[in-house]
Amino acid sequence: MNGREHSDAELLKRIDLKAVERRDRRRQGRNFLVALAFMSPALLLVGVLLLVPVVYNIYLGFTRWRKFSGIDEFAGVENYARMLSNPFFGEALFNTAIWVVASIVFPILIGLAMALLFRGVRFENTFKNIIFIPRILAPTAVGVIWYYVYAPDGLLNRGLSVFSGDPVDIGWLYDSATVTPAIIATFVWQTVGLVMVLVLLGLSAIPKDPLEAAKIDGASKVQVFQHIVLPLLLPTLVMVTILSVLAGFTVFDLLWVMGISYPGQRSLSLTVYMYFEAFQKGAWAYGSAVAVVIGLVVLCVTWIQAVLQQRVDKMTR
Amino acid sequence: MTVALDTLDFDAIARRERRLQQSKWWTLAVAFLISLIWLIPFYYLAISVFKTQQEYAAKAPLALPDGLWPIVGNAVEAWTQAKMGFGMLNSAFYGLVGAGLAVFFAAMAAYGLTRLDFRRKNLWFMVIFAGTVFPFQMYLIPLFFFYQDWGILNTHFGMILFYTAICIPFPTLVLKNFMNGLSREMDEAARMDGASEFTVFLRIILPNAWGPMTATFLLQFTWIWNDLLFSTVLGNRPETRSIMNALQVFQGSYASAGPNIVLTAALIASLPSIILFFVLRRHFMEGMRVTSL
User: What Å distances lie between residue B105 and A31, A261, B78, B111, B203, CA to CA?
Assistant: First the structure.
């Protein structure tokens, strides 16, 4: 025993710690080069085609670049000041705000209600699939279908006139008062299925014990929902809300397809407004500035998500 | 556990059971009604594609068509007028190659990030993942001009390049998390036997990551198939248009074609993703679980 300890100490003395460290660093360096080789296609593509454009876009927003003019003229915040006085921008911003609120409220409320309603009902899976199917279709195709549903002599008006007895002639997609709500209804029709499925997933993860305990203690259904189900479902709801807001805020396809005959199409939302200014009017710098505004809002939402998620995680732990 | 039977209120239990059963009926009825409302647009689509233009204009929107044959004429007209042959081929090409390359590159990156030991891994991951943080609008104008400068605007190569790039970050996240969970014993053993890193990746890690790779591939393929925005900006020529772009252009200029034709085009454009979904439902659900958690 004693001899063994002795030789260990001798061995340790003989090991050159510096050399070990050096070898370690060399191995890490070699590893890093190999790893870099593995990551290089991804880094190159993402860097050149996604990250560089974002930086360049921010720069463009501060220039005076238009069709047939050079980029080099620096304009400061001129483009941003112009937005404030542009009525179309104001309208686009207002409509975008409506989209944000609507995509927080409706998908969550309807998705949650559907999840609670369908849960445990006979043919649950059939109902679930039916509500989910619109999600499979491309937004473009959905937009085309609903464009004709809302047409002046389309399904909705004809159906309403059958119910009311009088001929109904509402220009759903032509009137500024109805065009945004109509497209939001289509958006909800398409996306609520995913919300419902995710809520159902969250519901099935709730442990049975506290529910049964509450029932035995004589809690009513509403009480059980409010005090047990809702708090445990909160993380799911937060996540779903954020997903829904980001989707609703950046909707483009539906607006582009369904708003095609609306005279004020450009102000249907910031996304359409940006596309219109840049690619139809050729106001490249101004369009870039609008894109930056959209980016800022998205970053804010992502940041709120991070904060909320942290709070919720703390609460549930 | 024993229950004193004489203390139980059987009437109350029976009442509660009956109420429960009644509420079940009510919910079933409401669920049925909601599903019916949800299906109306599909029903409308399904019958409209079987109608001739005169039939579509004259009949009630939800009335059944006279016969099934008009769909052939509608499909032929939609296919030729909307140039859907190009669109279908292009989108299939973009989807298969773009999503395929993206998932492969993502797997490579994930391998580098999880199987090799080096410092500041998280930073390198964040560089790749940053590609999903920004809204698409911030890419459009710079890319349009880069593409013009490089001479790849409105080319298949340019479209593939972009679709590959945009589809890399998300699979990288998923595959990184997955590969973190794989045991390290096998690749250590292979390395001992003198296998190169690339062999380890190709022969040991890839076969094990097949499941999440398929799931993310399907998600990205559907994304590319459904994309309208980037095809409109970067590939807006009949020869390079994606199917959804072809559909949108056709609908936007429908002066010559009736709604029944445009609706037929919408149905044809959606068929591949519908078929894909029903054939590979398990993988899609897996993908959804992966995206949400």
Answer: 18, 42, 37, 10, 16
Query: Stretch B276-284: mean pLDDT, rounded?
Result: 76
Average pLDDT over chain A, rounded to an integer: 88
| Residue where the block lists tokens 């974002």 | A54
Beta bridge partners of A74: A63
Query: Do A27 and B93 contact (CB within 8 A), yes or no?
Result: no
Tokens 């973190």 sit on residue: B180
Which residue in the set A138, A291, A302 is minimally distant from B138, CB to CB? A291
Task: Write the DSSP string, chain B.
Answer: ----GGGS-HHHHHHHHHHHHHHHHHHHHHHHHHHHHHHHHHHHHHHHTTS-HHHHHHS-TTSPPS-STHHHHHHHHHHHHTTHHHHHHHHHHIIIIIHHHHHHHHHHHHHHHHHS--S-HHHHHHHHHGGGTS-THHHHHHHHHHHHHHT-TT-HHHHHHHHHHHTSHHHHHHHHHHHHHS-SHHHHHHHHTT--HHHIIIIIIHHHTHHHHHHHHHHHHHHHHH--HHHHHH--STTT--HHHHHHHHHHTTTSS-HHHHHHHHHHHHHHHHHHHHHTHHHHHHHHHHHH-
pLDDT single digits (tens) B77-112: 889 888 899 999 999 999 999 999 999 999 999 999
Within 8 A by CB and 6+ apart from B105, the residues are A41, A42, A45, B164, B168
Please tell me whether the overall predicted TM-score, pTM, comes out greater than 0.80 for this model.
yes
Give B141's strand partners: none
Residue A153 DSSP symbol: T
Which sequence spans correspond to the domains of chain B?
5-70, 77-292
CA distance B238 to B86: 7
A42/chain B closest Cα distance in angstroms: 6
Assign A301 to helix, strand or coil: helix
For B77-292, give the CATH class. mainly alpha
**Which DSSP letter does residue A177 get?**
T
What are the tens digits of pLDDT across the range A120-170? 788 888 898 899 989 889 999 999 999 999 988 888 988 888 888 888 888
Domains of chain A listed by start with CATH number: 2-60 (no CATH), 78-316 (1.10.3720.10)
Quick check: A99 and A249 in contact, CB under 8 A?
yes
User: A288 is written with which tokens?
Assistant: 């870039």
Q: Is the predicted pLDDT of residue B293 greater than 50, yes or no?
A: no
Residue A204 tokens, joined: 């099935």
Of B34, B108, B266, the CB nearest to A144: B266
What pLDDT band is residue A195 in, cutting at 50, 70 and 90? very high
**Interface predicted TM-score (ipTM) of this complex, two decimals:** 0.86
Q: Given phi > 0 = left and psi -120 to 50 = alpha, else beta, which region is A74?
A: beta
DSSP string covering A73-89: -B-TTHHHHHHHH-HHH
The CA angle B33-B37-B42, to the nearest 5 degrees, is 135
- Cβ-nearest to A60 among B42, B142, B259: B142
A279: pLDDT strictly greater than 90: yes
Give chain A positions within 8 Å (CB) of B46.
Answer: none
Q: Pick from B32, B138, B236, B274 the residue to mutate for testing the A interface (most A CBs within 10 Å).
A: B138
